[in-house]
Amino acid sequence: MNPEASAQCAITSGLLCISQKQYNEALDHFKCALQIQQQYFLSNNPELASTYDLIANVYYEQNQYDQSLSNHMKVLDILVNSLADDHPSIGGSYFDISKDYVGLMSWSNALEYGFKAIEQARKSVQMSIEILLICIDHIAEIYCQMNEYKKALIHYQEALDLCLNYLPDDDSLLINRYDSIGETYLKLEKYNRALKAYQKKLNIQLEISSNDMKNISSTYLNIAISYFHLDQLDEALIAGNQAQNYVPENMPVNDPHARKIRDILRRINRAM
Hints:
The protein has 272 residues and is mainly alpha-helical.
């Protein structure tokens, strides 16, 4: 068997191990493949980058973020030296490194590489709106983990504006955008603004995904919470009852979502 075929065989075995969650065994196979490739490929061969990426992803799944970062950095080094400056794979590499830094709670580094991923996505000839949204949301989520909700809102709004500019008004991608904005406004105790975001989310849900009972129930719950904090108790009760009505029949009574609905309804009734 020629070296390239031997390396590919080891990679295939590693991927099979991953499908069975045998991560240590997968690492052994991927490292074996890497050793073979290093003997026969130039140091900037994209095949090496692919194998380093597989190794990094296994470490990431094991929460070994320092090892994942080390290998993702090797991926980036190969890609920037072998691909065109605007190639989307470089943006994906920046994104992976940012995620590693999030795992390490190194927020400034996570933001640095997250913004690089956005910049790379924007300049790519093959720019994908979906990929750009993922990158922007990632920045917002980092700020949320840092409890910097006002900065997070800037980027959630940027993602929403991108959707509104490029996608139909009823596109499903808008649902998550409005949900993130509503959730962040709740954390900031800006209940009027949270309410508006959740109402826009609900309108789209009822139009395009009316069978998604649990998520619609969740939206009604957040509307009820918003109304409750605005002291609009009648509206809060209506929304709370709607949240209850949309609870799927097979949801266990002790499910956290079901408990939250019962809790807000008790609070509303006590306040009336």
